Structures are given as structure tokens and as C-alpha cells.
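Page 42, continued from yesterday. The earlier attempt failed because a stray header line got pasted into the input along with the sequence. Redoing it now with the clean sequence only.
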Amino acid sequence: MADLLAEVREALERANVISRAATQCEEFVAEARFDKAFQALDAGLKTYPGDPALMARRHDVAERQEAFQSAATVRTALEEAQWLLSQDRLDLAADFLMEKAAGLPDQPALLSRI
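This time it went through. C-alpha cells are written below.
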């Protein structure tokens, strides 16, 4: 009976650590504070290395960070292209957007703006 109780306590502690890391992670991701989100997950992984739930969430956060950074790059590029257009530099705006589109082929907003 004592062994069973110890196992239950251990499982509960593990679930609490994982839940706490996941909750903190989501709060940081919502604020676009990806470095803090990774730190929260890494703290859980330090306690439970290789935990599948934490590893999967870490992978998800990495993908979300990449998408966020890509979207920020696109926004900046579109703003710069708009500035060139307002300066009547259609040629430079088109060249600039084509260059950015080549570097970010998964961003149709750049191609549609050309």
C-alpha cells in the first residue's frame, strides 16, 4: 500500500510540474515572449528529461516562434515597400518585394503585393 501511495504522489508531482510548465509557457507565448516560454519548458524538462508532452510543446513553441518572426519580417517588408511606393519608386519597391519573396517563399502576401 505504501508503494502504491508513493507512486501516486510521484505521478501527481510529475503532472503538477508539467502542468505548471505548460501554463507558464502558454502565458509567455501569448505575450510573444518565446525565450521565457522555452525557459519554462526547459525547467520542466530539467526535472523530467525527455517528457513527451513537454518535448511536443517545445516543438510547437518553436514553430510558433518561427511563424511569428516570419510574419514580423513580412510586415516590415510591406511597410518598406509602401514607403518606396510613396516615394514614387515603383521599380525599387518591386525589386525589394521580389527579393524578400525569394527569401520567404511561404509568404504569399509578398507575392500578392508585387
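Notes: The radius of gyration is 22 Å.
Reminder to self: strip header lines before submitting.
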